[in-house]
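Review form for a predicted model. The reviewer records the input and the model, then writes brief findings.
Reviewer: anonymous (R2)
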Amino acid sequence: MQFSFLNSSRNQLLFLLILTTVLLFSGLNKTPIYILDEARNAQCAREMLHRNDWIVPTFNNQLRQQKPPLHYYAMMTAYSIFGNTPFGARFFSGICGVLLIVSLYFFVKRFTNELTAFISCLILLSSTHFLFEFRLSVPDPYLILFFTITLFCFYIYMQSQKTFWLILASVAMALAVLSKGPVALGLAGVPILVWTIWEKKTKILFRPQLFLAIIIFITISLPWYILVHLKTDGAFTREFFLEQNLQRFNEPLEGHGGWFVLIPVFVIVGLLPFSSFIFQASKTIKNDFKNGLLKYCLLISIWVVLVFSIASTKLPNYPMLCYPFMAIWLAVWFERLYQNKSKIKSFSWYIIIAINILLGIGVYILLKNDNVFHTFKWWGILFLALATTCVFAFLYFKKKQVLQSFQLFVIGYTVFNFLFLTFAYPAIYQNNPVTTSLSIIKNKKLYAYGMYNPAYNFYVYQPIIDLATANNIKKLWTIYPESIIVARESSLESLHGKLEYTIIHRYRDTFENPVTVLLAKK
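Model under review:
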C-alpha cells in the first residue's frame, strides 16, 4: 500500500487541504444548532449583526459577558454571506481548522522534514475530538488557531532572529486574546519564558524588537475591551474578568468540576487513536528534552495540561491547545519508528482495538435501549468496523511494514470520522426538543417559564421573555391566547392549581435527563 503521489511536498499539502476541507465542511449544515454553547454563541452573533453593533455582545437582548468578540465577528461576516444558518455559524470555525493544518505542516516541515510534517497533520485529522470542535460555532477554534500560530511564529523568530516573525507572533497573540481573553497570554508566556531561559536565548528575547511587538499587541487587542467597558458602564469588564476568568479557575462553574487527573484523561481520549501510543513514546522523553523543538512542544503541552488540571472548572475543550504540539511530538516518534530508530510493543495496538470494540458494543446497547434513538443502534457497527481496520493495521505492523500500517490506520479513522460527522451525528441530533417542535412554534409568539434550551432563540428570530410566574402567563394568554410557553417538565409542578394549560409537545433532551415541554392555553 504505497501512495507514491504523496512523496512531494506540494502533493502532500494539496492532499491535506482536500482532506481537511472534506472532514470539516461535509454535512456542516445538517446538524441543527442545539448544543447550549453553540446556540448562545450563534445567536449572540445574529443579534449583534441585526443591530449592526460590533462592540456589545448580547444574547436574548441581554449582555453576554462570557466571551470576547472575534468569533462573533467571524459569524457575523459568514451570516452576511451564507445567511443565518448553522453553516454560516460554523463556517469560519472550519476555516480555522484548515489554516491550523496548513500552519502545522509548514512549521514542522521547516524544522524537521516532509514526512514528519505530514504525519503530524494526519494525527490531528484522525482525532474525532479535533474535527468535532472545529465544526462548532464556539470560540475555541479561533483560540487554538491563533495560540498555535503565536507559538509557531515565536519559535521561528528565536531561530531566525527576523523581526517579521516576532511581529506576526504579536498579531496572532492579540487575536487569541480577542478570541477568549487574557488567559491566552499566560498559557503562551510561561512556556516561552521557560524554554528561552533553558535554551539560553534570553538576549534574543529581550531585544528592542520586543517593545515593538508589545505595542502592536496592545494596539490590536486593547481597543475593544476599552470600548465595551465604556458602553456597558463596566458591566462586561466586571463579569468577564472576575467571573468568567478568575471564578472559573477558583471554583467549578455550571457543574464542570472534577479530579486533577481529568484533564490528562481528556487529552488521551481527545487525541485517540494516536494517544494510545503516548506511553510508548514517553520512554524517549528524556532524550526528547535535548531537542530544542521537542522541548518546546513538550513544555507547552505540559504547561497547558497542568494549568487546566489545577483550575477548578474542567471541560474537554480546554486542553485542546496542546493538541498541535502533542501531534508534533508523536509525529517525530513515528518517524523514528519508520526509520527503525525506535521500537513499539504490541500492547498499544491491543488497547486501541479493545477501545473500539467496547465503544461499538456500548453505543449499540445505549442506542438500542433508548426509546428515541433505538433505530440508530446499528451505527455502533462503525466502531466495530474501525476495530477490524486496526487489526489489519496491526498485522502490517507485525510484518515491520510501519508505513503501510500507519496508512491503513489513518484511512480507517478518516472513513470513520467522515461517516460519523457527516451522517451519524447529524441524523441523531435532529431528534432534539427544538428541532422536533419547529413546525409547532412557527409563526407563534414564544415565551419561557424558567429554564429552556437557548437554541430556540436561534430558530424563532425573536427574544424569548421569561414570564417567571403563573399569573404572568395568565395575563399573556388573555391578550395573546395563541402564545406558546417553553419550559422544563420539572418546573411544571409550580403551576399545578394555578394555571390551566395543555402540553402540546414533550421531548427529552438529547442524551440528557431534562424534558422540554411546550404549553398552550387549555
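Findings: Residues 508 and 515 are 4 Å apart (CA to CA).
Further findings: The mean pLDDT is 91.
Recommendation: see findings above.
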